[in-house]
Amino acid sequence: MVGRWRIVLFVVLLLVHNRTSRADDADYFRQRVQPLLDRRCYECHSHRAKELQGGLSLDSRSGWVKGGDSGTAIVPGKPDESLLIKAVRRTNKDLQMPPDEKLKDEEIAVLVDWVSRGAIDPRDSLDTERGGGSWTEKLSERRKHWCWQPAKRPAVPNDRGESSTQVDRFLLARMKSEGLAPSRDADRWSLARRLSFVLTGLPPAPNELEHFVADESPDAFDKLVDRTLASPYFGEHWARHWMDLIRYSDTHGSEHDPLIPHAWRYRDYLVRAFNGDLPYDRLVREHLAGDLLPPRGNPTLGINESPIGTGWFRFVEFYPTPIDVKNEEIVVVDAQIDAFSKTFQALTIACARCQLQRLACNRCG
């Protein structure tokens, strides 16, 4: 039986893929919108302002939803109806912000784009920070979040229904609680096609379809799963999803967009890892320290696979002729940490950088 890690990885990647759009909008806010608000608005419209102007706070989502003396500041998806956008555009002589200097056109465009995309704002309310509550209390409360709880094996529902698999029994129990009934079983032709598209991204070969339909053994589907997982197309299909997580690219981006020499070697390494059923813990170690591990030889190619796993560190936006070399180094390392934490820990460690910057600003003034 093919290693279980493939199935687990498949589920994880599928969930990540489905949440990409909203995560991108949250990243856009953290990277483009929040620094702009911090730089141009917080002096008068945040909890650190000496006197909150107009009753409007922009340093939390609850702040702009509540609005100020003139009402709600933002109408998600409707920039032309949002008071914040009207203020920065200065279309009303009585509503012009910032009062001392108009925002640059590109800064206004960032705010308009953010509101147009639904004004996604991942920040928690700052009410607890304003009203007191020790850090120990807040930390204790945040530790109750579901993602920090120890993994538990839930009891399998007793109702077997028409399926013998434990996964289906969980699904059947939830469906019954919602007053739903399962769909009828797919015919063998449809089942084989669905399996092939999910695992390889390709339709099944005609002879594979005929073989499965004619196989009347009780484990016919299990054998089809094994054969499909053994296909070289499995690794090609799912390596592509992993490459999205670590931000694979053949070029560095920026206005010069220089090539990344031998980037394809990492791509092929990843395909071989998936198809070779490489244990997940070894895959992670090779990505982080493959050049320091005992060699993992590939007798066919005559190479050591392990060091190639570290190639993903170079998949970052990179300016070949930076004006500020030290700052460029910081940007590159920051991108590496961001990709690492999201891929291997499902954590946005990059958020900590903004939080530290905010705390530093608070201490300074």
Average pLDDT: 83
The fraction of residues in strands falls at under 5%
Beginning-to-end CA distance, first to last residue: 62 Å
Percent of residues in helical segments?
40-55%
Q: Give a quick account of the main beta sheet: strands, pairing sense, barrel closure.
A: 2 strands, antiparallel
- The number of strands is 2
When the domains are counted, the total is 3
What pattern of helices and strands is seen along the backbone?
Answer: HHHHHHHHHHHHHHEEHH
Uncertain regions spanning at least 5 consecutive residues: 125-133
Radius of gyration: 26 Å
Question: Helical region count?
Answer: 16
Adjacency order of strands in the biggest sheet: 1-2
The coarse silhouette is extended
Please state the structural category.
mainly alpha
Please state the oligomeric state of the protein chains shown. Answer: single chain
